[in-house]
Fold this sequence. Notes:
Elements: H1 4-15, E1 26-30, E2 33-37, E3 50-58, E4 65-72, E5 75-76, H2 79-101, E6 106-112, H3 116-132, E7 135-141, H4 147-158, E8 165-168, H5 178-184, H6 196-203, H7 214-225, E9 234-238, H8 245-254, E10 258-262, H9 269-273, E11 278-281, E12 299-302, E13 306-309, E14 317-320, H10 325-328, E15 334-335, H11 342-361
Amino acid sequence: MASASSSLMLFAADSSSTARLVSFNTTNKLPNGVVQFKRFISPQFGLQNAKTIITHVSSPSSYSVASMVTEASAKVIDGKSVAKDIQGEITAEISRMKNEIGVVPGLAVILVGDRKDSATYVRNKKKSCESVGIKSYEVCLPQDSREEEVLEHISSFNNDPAVHGILVQLPLPSHMNEQNILNAVCIEKDVDGFHPLNIGRLAMRGREPLFVPCTPKGCIELLHRYNVDIKGKNAVVIGRSNIVGMPAALLLQREDATVSIIHSKTKNPEEITKQADIIIAAVGQPNMVRGSWIKPGAVLIDVGINPVEDSTRPRGYRLVGDICYEEACKIASAITPVPGGVGPMTIAMLLSNTLTSAKRIHNFN
Ligand SMILES: Nc1nc(=O)c2c([nH]1)NC[C@@H]1CN(c3ccc(C(=O)N[C@@H](CCC(=O)O)C(=O)O)cc3)C=[N+]21
């Protein structure tokens, strides 16, 4: 078979053809060494992410063998880094606002109960607020509080001129009526974008919501900042929750994508995802989207943040997405990691919505 030098030349010839989808997926094992050629190159991001690993070079008596594995790995969409950039932009705007009109944006968070994950999110939000210069107000109520108490806090934040955004951490305890509570947040301070009037406007052509829900907004912002075309593309949203799937589908539609929504009753979901140029996965099922579900070159946004047991980690678990990253990164052209993908963007969009709200209320541009 191939000698070491001819295999390397073969690779060189390949790598000059940038735009072509080159794939030769062979795995040849020879008794005296291994020759492997494996390539998945996605056209959209060219070859910059192709990794060539010479795994084995041997020179038995008659010939030498180089084993070369070239696997394109998708571009990593670095949500953590984009979120950091955005927070820098927000910090600068807040300081300009403070200097020019003496106003500091304020965000109120209401947390009911003692779910550990909710407490962690709320703590992280508070830290992020501090770092950009947003003043945060926090109310923590016990699990057995009455709905009326929550409504009273919302009402007083609605009337507090120092507060420009109000977030009620979800999920609420099951004895509370989530609809009543979300309806009570005045739409001018609904930085989560969960008020039915904001969602309704998001759904209507020619109408503009005051706020767009943070997680879906973060997904679209990542696509924009990575120059992913959305217009005219096939986009698939997996999951139809009020807080992520549904608004994500509406946003993609507003960006002129052709949108399909997959949910628990969808038959043969993989046949639909296989057609998708863009997938947003938001179901909360660890590793549900397998490599075989993905069209080569697709762009993947993974909203899932699922803890799975892992005794090798200090916390006893690690976080995985809804998309099987190890398989998907060999087929997609770009993918968000978990953690470090959509999660940090959710917080950045919350800060951004809070700044927008303060600007609007104070008529500051
Ligand atoms: N009213 C309301 N608004 C929300 O926006 C809201 C909510 N309720 N309830 C819970 C979900 C969840 N959520 C996250 C935000 C950031 C990360 C995040 O930054 N995650 C890190 C990982 C953090 C870790 O290591 O644990 C990451 O993905 O890199 C995750 C999850 C906001 N939520």
